[in-house]
Structure formats: structure tokens, C-alpha cells
Amino acid sequence: MRNTASVGTRRLVFLACALAGCGPDSGRGGGGRDGGADGGSGIPGLASIDVTPANASFTIVNGAPASGDFVATGHFQDGHLADVTAQVGWSLADGGLGTVDKGHYTSITAHGGKTMLQASDGVHQGSAQLVLKYSATRVSTDDGSTAPADSATKFAGATNEPTLAPPVVYPLDGVLAPRNLGELEVQWKKPAAAADLFEVSFVSPTFELEVYTNAVQPQGGRLSLLNQEWSALADSVAGSGVNVAVRALAVSDPTKIGGSSPVVMNVGTDEVKGGIYYWSAAGAAGTVEGIKRHQFGDTTSPAAAFYTQNDAVFVNAISSTTHCVACHVLSRDGTKFAVTYDGGNDTSALFDVATKTSIIAPSVDLAWNFAAMSPDGMRMVGSHDGVIKIYDISGGATTGTVLGTVPTAGWGTHPDWSPDGKSLVFVRTPSASVDWGFTKGSIVVMTDDGMGNFNNPMTIVTSAGENNYYPSFSPDNKWILFDRSTGDSYDDPDATLYVISADGKIGPIRLNAANAMGQLTNSWPRWSPFVQTNGPNGDLLYFTFSSKRDYGIEMGSLNAGNPTRPQVWMSAFDPKIASGNMDPSDAPFWLPFQDVMTNNHIAQWTQAIVGIN
């Protein structure tokens, strides 16, 4: 479990930030000015300004704007008071929440939030705290729902009946999602007693939404937020959280109602940027195996096939037709793509992403199993049979040549290049037969001597019998994610995620919140490519990993017709908490652009998606 004191501290800081007007839109501070005296030489004899009410709350109800009046009272040096509302300039620290004209506030309608309202004569300033709440209700028609238009009234005044309580199984309690996740499905288990009308609620000081549905699934129920509802939620609570709960009743006896315990869903202040390329193995009939990709935050379509077995048509020792495409890596800018075929150890290739033309044609001589590209995309390290070589991938005349070999002092594999280009991390194991299956791996960091050679090996995680593998450098170069298991590095059910500082001084720290409990095969951790902001609390990072865990009622132990399979999940990471040697992860969320009927893993990030569709 993560340190609750740290979590509480972070959330309180977020709240203080919002009240001070330093939220995600505060860069637009000063908006909503009415062109009054602000910026002038001041009102003669004025000593100070009070704004009343000092704390004001407004509510947007089903899209109707809220409004109200503030009064600025001037305290003068001779002791008298006067109404100076029409003489001062008015503004909002977060101008995205509305406008103020001579003390009259008019809200926006798209979302809620918290800010400071200010009145100033150019010399003196008074302020008030302003809370804007977004409130809406909707009756769903999703999944064939025919919930009655008066559903909300049926949930008023009923008595509590615990057997009608539908436990929420997604989102996970304590999740921290980026502002541009864009899609969210709430899922719940069937209550013990029969119920046929459900209320899904989202409640915070700045946001309230109730959606009603009578659609049921064999395992329970689900409800998807509309895109505009997610936007309203995310913009209203960014930097804080919302309580998600489900209530249920039987229409035949609406005097009794059951309610779930709420789960807390937090929303970050920033959007996540970048593209994800992941391997999608065959699942449902007709599914084509290969690499899919998606621009994070795009809610217009699911992940699209990029490079599949139908693209891999060439002759090698294994096949003269199509080939399995699996382990892949991309340059940070997303312009180059390296891939291995047929499970590795045979043939590899390098392509230009935009055109899918070969930079290095499929070749046995240049085969690699795991690879990483330098930050500038000019070189690549690749491991094959325990040897890590450095390749020229510049696209020039020497492309494909071996520039050197990394002195691993043992079987070396799973390399990753730091974003600043100064370090290389890899796994060293005393013995192995293949790069993807070994035991007793240790994590080693080496530094570039300035001439393109890696030296000065430092073992930051020494195996004491356990296996450490799949290391990955954070975008700020300071942290290394990796996997740990008791057995083989290939598809080990007890694989769990750890982090250690790149200098080996902090950690290893088990990422308990992200890992959860059980044999979940939490594998292939990879960082998103940018450092986000965490409100006033510093940086916030995100990472993805593959996991064979339940996705609510959609997949796993609650759905026998759709058993557990690997999917890509994502978790937030607070480096300030990690610096205190405590679990810096949050509960993860399922990436909504996936197909739950396919096996999805090995998510690799780029700074952007480039090239053809």
C-alpha cells in the first residue's frame, strides 16, 4: 500500500493550489477583466479593499450558466468606507472560469473549478474565493438501456438495503489519470439482491454528475462517460479527485436502495503527450497479429494496425511467406522503427516509420532480439545471444555497420538508452541460452566516455537469486523501472514492478499500488516520453506495463466468457515520493483504445505518431 500520509499531503497541496488560482488554466490568469481602474494610479485616499462575499459558490445546472454579484468596499485613510465596485477593475485568476463585469460574475458552462476573484484599483487589491460547480444528470441509452426519464426521483427518500449494493470494480480506488484520458467506463458487480435500475454518480466540490441506466450484463453493469462528460469532469477536478459510486434499486420496490462504497479517482493537472506502439497478438477470430499504435488522448478511434504479419513478407530460414512481428523499438521522435521476426534470434530490420521503407532490410547477419535507440536516432544498441552491439542507423553510407560492442562481462541483454544519451542500462546474467528467457539477472548501468563507448559499469541491482530484467530509463534520466520475478524472464506470472534511482542510491522500491496483489504477470514497464507537472508539487511521470489482471466485468475472473489476457495498463509515478524511498505509484488504469479480445503488451512510447495511417 502506498504511504497514505504522502497521498493526503499531495492532494491537500493540489486543493490549496486550486484555491489560490494556480490550477491548470492559471496561465490565463487576469482573464475576465472589466476594464476598470486596475493598472491606474489608484483611488485617492484609499487604504485597502474588501470583496464580499469572501467565499462564493456557484453551480452550472445542466448547461445553464451561473451568475452573481460581488461588492468591493473601500477602506479609506480617513476611516470612512465606500462602495467602490464600479471604480475598480475586476478579474479572475483563472479567466477560463468566466467573466466579471463591475462585480457581476457570469460563469462558463463547460466545467467547474476553483479560483480567486480580484478587485483592484491598480495599487490596492481585494480578493474572494470562488467555487464553480458543474452539475448535470443524464438518462443513458447505452447497451440498450430503457431507464425511465424520471429515474432520479426513484432514488430520493429510499431506505438503505445492503443486499442491493453493487460493488464498483472499475475504476480502481486511488487511480490517478491524466487530464486527457478522454474515455472512462465505470463497471460494477451484480448486487446480491435483484436490481434493475442503477445510478452512477461522480461527486466532488466542483463536479457532480448522475447517470441512470437499466442495462445489465451477465456479470454486472457498466456505463461509459460521453467525451464531453469526461472533459467536464477532468477540467473541473484537475489536480484533485472525484468520488465514483453506484446505487441500485428494484423498480418494483423503490423504497429500498443499496449503494456501493465510493472509489476515489484523481485527475492530473497535465495532459499526457506521445504515441504508443504495442504488440497485439491474435485473440478473436480474424484478428491480425502485429504492431498497433495510438496517439495518446485521441478518442476518435481505437488503436490502428501499423505493422502486421501481412506487412512482413520476405524469405528467411523460417518462412518464405508472412512472419510474426514481435519485439520492436522506436526512436524517441517516432521516425524510425526496429523489429525482430518469428520470435527473435533469426532476422531483424529497421524501417522509416512514415514510409515503411527499409533502412536496414530484413537480415540474419544483423539480428537483434532487444534494442534501444540513441536519443538522436543515429545509433542503436541491440542484444543477440548475450552480446550487446552498437549499430549505425543514421541512414547514411555506413548504416548497418557495427560501431562497437558493449563490454558486459557476462551475458548481456535488455538494453535501454537514457534520454540524455549519457548512460546505458542492461541486464547481466551469469548464464542463459536465449535473450528472452533467463534467471538471476542483475541491472547494470554504464556511462558514455564521450566518444560513443560505454564504460564504468555499475551494478545497481545485484541478484540474490531473484531475476531482475526489462530495465527502462525515466524521461528525466533519474529512475529505472524494471521487472523482478522468482523464475524465468519470459511470461513469469509473479513478475512485479520495481524502481531504483539511476545511481543506485534509492531503492529498489516495489511499486505496490501499480502491482496490486496476485499472480498478474506485470511486465514490460516503459515510461511515457515526457515529464508532466504535478501542480505545485513538482514533477509527475507516467508509465505503462502489461498485466494479466481483471478489467472489471469486461475481462477476467468476473467474465468466464472473456478470460484474463495481457493488456496494457498505465500508472502515475511521483518522483518526490520515490525520493523518500516510498512507493511512488498510483493504482493503474486500463488504456481505453485497446481491444480486450487481443493479447496486448510491449508498449513502446514515442514523442509523437508520425507518418501514414
Molecular structure report:
The chain is mainly β and 613 residues long. The chain has 3 domains: 4-133, Immunoglobulin-like (Sandwich), CATH 2.60.40; 140-267, Immunoglobulins (Immunoglobulin-like, Sandwich); 275-606, Neuraminidase, CATH 2.120.10.30. The chain contains 5 helices and 47 strands. The strands form 11 sheets. Strands 2, 6, 9, 10, 11, 13, 15, 16, 18, 19 and 20 form an 11-stranded mixed sheet that branches. A hairpin with a 5-residue loop joins strand 24 and strand 25 (336-341). It starts with a helix and ends in a 7-residue tail after the last strand. The model is unreliable at 1-33 (pLDDT under 50).
CATH class of the largest domain: Mainly Beta
Question: What is the gyration radius calculated from CA atoms?
Answer: 28 Å
CATH architecture of the largest domain: 6 Propeller
Number of separate structural domains: 3
Described by the principal axes of the CA atoms, the overall outline is globular
Strand content: 35-45%
| CATH topology descriptor of the largest domain | Neuraminidase
Unreliable segments of 5+ consecutive residues: 1-33
Mean pLDDT: 90
Roughly how much helix do the residues carry, as a percent range?
Answer: under 10%
Strand tally, please? Answer: 47
H/I helix tally? 5
Q: How widely separated are the two ends?
A: 42 Å
CATH H-level superfamily title of the largest domain: TolB, C-terminal domain
| Most strands sheet | 11 strands, mixed
**Backbone structural class:** mainly beta
